[in-house]
Write a structure and sequence with these properties.
- Helix content is 0%, strand content 45%.
- It is an all-beta fold.
- A hairpin with a 6-residue loop joins strand 19 and strand 20.
- The strands form 6 sheets. The chain has a 6-stranded antiparallel sheet, with no helix packed on it. Strands 11, 12, 13, 14, 15 and 16 form a 6-stranded antiparallel sheet that branches.
- It is globular and about 50 Å long.
- The protein has one domain: Neuraminidase (6 Propeller), CATH 2.120.10.
């Protein structure tokens, strides 16, 4: 049995497919014990696409000096070439700000916060050697993912976590937002301010922790941090002060039902529909792991509707589309995925340990609905 592919360009939405969908950006055979993580996507002012990913797994150096790779497409995603290899870069978000390209994350798994700048479209990057060149913290134990970087009230903001609470994975994450004046030198650590980190109450709250938050502006203009929760189809809404420096959370009303809320997601606002959109991994109705990918939308960030199942495979063990990063482009959505799928070497190690990074175009996304 193959898998269902719906609504993506150059695919028959009624057909059951048996090959990897999309355009392959990069590939790692499972035998290398190196797996593809943290797909990120940006569009340069001149229209070129730039994508990045990192490596994890026992064959990589992700726990000591992680490596990321940067790719370029000059034909709107139809083909890709590698343009950079960066040591000391993990969990990076790609974004364009004031005409320059940035990559912001950590220098290894649970490492220090770093940011790099490129002025040539991603071919060369600054090196974060000190507090003036992109090394934003001296201490480590920070965590993040490719999530939106937002400008609001003349500040540039993004969500992160530290792993400084006691306990195992999930329980140890504390959520915070890091921000800077929009016209500041983003490589200067003194430009950045962290909000007070919020712990997840493992005794009384849902799930085993929260992580990989999205800074979002709600319909009333308020700043929110919407986080993945380690509980099926659930997310959490943290309320931020206008400058992003203070946060509050009410567990009685700020846990929401969101399809795919238990796996990393990216939320963006579309002014044309006045709706928020995301590409997620629904895990209930019916049960799935990361072998189902769907387009969802919401008017208020609290009530979410599945608009279309994009990809689905019957096997949850070695097939997945996950950690999608995406952007609007006119009437389309373009996205990149950490994809686990069949290859000539026996397929992925498992659904989590992906062997591909793939690019996809979702045409006329506003018209999609079951």
């Amino acid at each position: 049995m193959g898998f269902i592919v719906a609504a993506c360009q150059a695919q028959d939405s009624s057909a059951v497919q048996s090959k990897l969908p999309g355009v392959v950006i990069d590939h790692r055979p499972a035998s290398t014990k190196i797996y593809i993580g943290s797909p990120a996507l940006a569009v340069l002012p001149d229209g070129r696409y730039v994508a990045s990913h990192d490596e994890f797994g026992p064959g990589s150096a992700y726990r000591t000096r992680a490596v990321s790779f940067v790719f370029e497409s000059t034909d709107r995603g139809q083909s890709w070439k590698q343009i950079a290899r960066i040591e000391g870069m993990f969990w990076g978000s790609l974004f364009v700000h004031n005409g320059a390209l940035y990559l912001m994350g950590t220098d290894k798994e649970y490492g220090r916060i770093v940011i790099r700048r490129s002025t040539d479209g991603g071919q060369t990057w600054t090196e974060p050697v000190d507090g003036k060149s992109g090394l934003l913290t001296d201490d480590d134990h920070y965590h993040c993912a490719p999530v939106p970087v937002v400008v609001h009230n003349d500040r540039i903001l993004r969500a992160m976590e530290d792993a400084k609470d006691p306990g195992t994975w999930g329980y140890h994450f504390r959520s915070f937002v890091i921000s800077a004046p929009r016209d500041a030198d983003l490589l200067d650590s003194s430009s950045w301010t962290m909000s007070f980190p919020m712990s997840h109450d493992e005794q009384t709250w849902k799930g085993k922790g929260w992580l990989e938050g999205n800074v979002v502006i709600d319909p009333r203009g308020n700043l929110l941090n919407i986080l993945r929760v380690d509980f099926p189809d659930t997310a959490a809404i943290v309320h931020l002060s206008p400058d992003g420096k203070a946060a509050s959370f009410d567990p009685q009303k700020d846990f929401i039902t969101m399809p795919g809320g238990a796996v990393k997601f990216t939320i963006r606002f579309d002014p044309k529909t006045r709706r928020y959109w995301s590409i997620v991994n629904p895990q209930t109705n019916p049960k799935a792991v990361r072998n189902r990918l769907a387009l969802v939308s919401s008017e208020d960030l609290r009530t979410w509707t599945i608009r279309k199942v994009l990809f689905e495979h019957p096997d949850p063990e070695k097939h997945a589309w996950q950690y999608v990063d995406w952007l609007f482009e006119g009437n389309d959505i373009i996205f990149v995925s950490r994809t686990a799928f069949d290859d000539a070497s026996g397929g992925a190690h498992n659904y989590h340990d992906a062997n591909f990074m793939t690019f996809h175009r979702l045409t006329n996304f506003r018209s999609l609905s079951f």
